[in-house]
């Protein structure tokens, strides 16, 4: 195998595929990039135990100059560092398990991985295929992922680190996530009716759409994988075999109080009261009265912060409630700008946040118990 390639093309591709490797994996090929070269294309792939990606570069005299076809596997991290040393066009010459990488007098010799060790990956993207806006998909995933858990003590609860995609012969997919204390859900309109009930690791789903993705991309899925494809690119992730909870009964909860306030006003109120970020003191005390909202933030042995606003409306009885400040900040941040509504259940054990601009984006929080 021997070819030369423009630095910018191989550098961009290796940087991209490096997002889909695991440098700590005991299975060495998952730290590597697989090169396959024929007379038409150079195909590069990378993988982890749950995610795979593929890039294809067309062989031509401008970008790639071909001398011999073949296959090789190179450690991705080392390759990234080496590519930075070159200027314009890099030559790869692979023979008997060793690859020479050079330009002019700058030369590196690397031992490669045995080709047979890299897994055979099915990158077919034809099943249940439809086109969507990549930016809308990215936003919905970002909006619901705030309710996934990253706490160490919950590592064993895989469900809390996932996003569920559900659609029952409809043209709207509902994305949902929960860490048991809060729930985020939002729908994404698609161009055709589908059936899907897929549970996916949130970290993987957030990596499905990348910065280089065009505005329109194709989504595909089957019983074992979910992915996105666009020109010369395929990214896919495995599905998890988990039974995700049905959130519809939660969304149908009755509410007897409603707060109406501008997003900026509520964000400003919260930020005024909080004077230190502390994982051990995250309780915000809210008092909702007809004359206004009072917020108190107390850190034992350090101090107390208070803030007040009268710029809001309360429909229902006055009440007091305590909320984790990180949860309410996350919920408010992902809502659209403008007017937001906070509905409160009769037992004051659920707070449902929506915005007038996008009522499909729902953030639900469980308040903290008062002592």
What is the secondary structure topology, with strand pairs?
Blueprint: E1 2-6, H1 7-17, E2 32-37, E3 41-47, E4 51-58, E5 64-68, E6 70-75, H2 76-83, E7 89-95, E8 98-103, E9 106-111, E10 130-133, H3 134-145, E11 162-178, E12 182-201, H4 202-206, E13 216-221, E14 225-230, E15 233-238, H5 248-251, E16 257-262, H6 263-273, E17 283-289, E18 292-299, E19 303-309, E20 313-315, E21 319-324, H7 325-334, E22 339-344, E23 351-355, E24 362-365
Helix pairs in contact: 1-2, 6-7
Strand content: over 45%
Q: Give the low-confidence spans.
A: none
Structural class: alpha+beta
- Overall, the morphology is elongated
Distance between the termini: 70 Å
How many structural domains in the coordinates?
Answer: 3
Task: Name the CATH class of the largest domain.
Answer: Alpha Beta
Q: Enumerate how many helices there are, as a single number.
A: 7
Major beta sheet, strand line-up: 6-2-3-4-15-14-13-10
The proportion of residues forming helix, as a percent range, comes to: 10-25%
Q: What is the averaged pLDDT score? A: 94
CATH topology of the largest domain: DNA Polymerase III, Chain A, domain 2
CATH architecture of the largest domain: Roll
| CATH homologous superfamily (4th level) name of the largest domain | DNA Polymerase III, subunit A, domain 2
Radius of gyration: 26 Å
- What does the largest sheet look like? 8 strands, antiparallel
Total strand count, please? 24
Features:
DNA Polymerase III, Chain A, domain 2, single chain, 7 helices, 371 residues, seven-stranded antiparallel sheet, 16% helix, alpha+beta, elongated
């Amino acid at each position: 195998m021997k070819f030369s390639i423009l630095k910018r093309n191989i550098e961009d591709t290796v940087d991209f595929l490096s997002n889909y490797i695991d440098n700590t994996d005991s299975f060495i090929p998952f730290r590597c990039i697989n090169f396959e070269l024929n007379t038409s294309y150079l195909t590069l792939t990378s993988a982890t135990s749950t995610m795979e990606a593929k890039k294809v570069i067309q062989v031509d005299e401008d970008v790639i100059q071909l001398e011999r076809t073949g296959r090789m596997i190179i450690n991705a991290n080392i390759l990234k560092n080496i590519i930075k040393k070159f200027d314009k066009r890099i030559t790869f010459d692979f023979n008997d398990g060793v690859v020479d990488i050079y330009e002019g007098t700058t030369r590196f010799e690397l031992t490669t991985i045995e080709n047979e060790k890299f897994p055979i990956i099915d990158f077919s993207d034809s099943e249940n295929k439809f086109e969507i806006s990549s930016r809308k998909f990215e936003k919905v995933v970002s909006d619901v992922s705030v309710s996934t858990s990253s706490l160490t003590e919950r590592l064993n609860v895989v469900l809390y680190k996932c996003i569920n995609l559900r659609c029952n012969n409809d043209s709207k997919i509902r994305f949902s996530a929960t860490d048991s204390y809060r729930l985020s859900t939002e729908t994404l309109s698609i161009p055709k009716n589908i059936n899907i009930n897929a549970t996916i690791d949130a970290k993987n789903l957030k990596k499905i759409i990348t910065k280089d993705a065009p505005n329109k991309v194709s989504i595909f899925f089957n019983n074992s994988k979910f992915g996105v494809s666009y020109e010369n690119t395929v990214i896919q992730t495995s599905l998890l075999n988990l039974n995700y909870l049905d959130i519809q009964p939660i969304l149908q909860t009755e509410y007897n109080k409603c707060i109406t306030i501008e997003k900026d006003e509520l964000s400003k109120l919260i930020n005024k009261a909080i004077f230190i970020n502390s994982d051990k003191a995250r309780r915000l005390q809210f008092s909702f009265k007809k004359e206004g909202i009072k917020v108190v933030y107390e850190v034992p042995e350090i101090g107390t912060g208070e803030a007040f606003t009268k710029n809001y409306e309360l429909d229902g009885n006055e009440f007091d409630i305590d909320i984790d400040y990180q949860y309410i900040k996350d919920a408010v941040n992902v809502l659209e700008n403008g007017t937001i509504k906070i509905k409160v259940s009769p037992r004051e054990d659920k707070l449902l946040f929506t915005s007038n601009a996008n009522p499909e984006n729902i953030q639900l929080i469980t308040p903290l118990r008062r002592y």
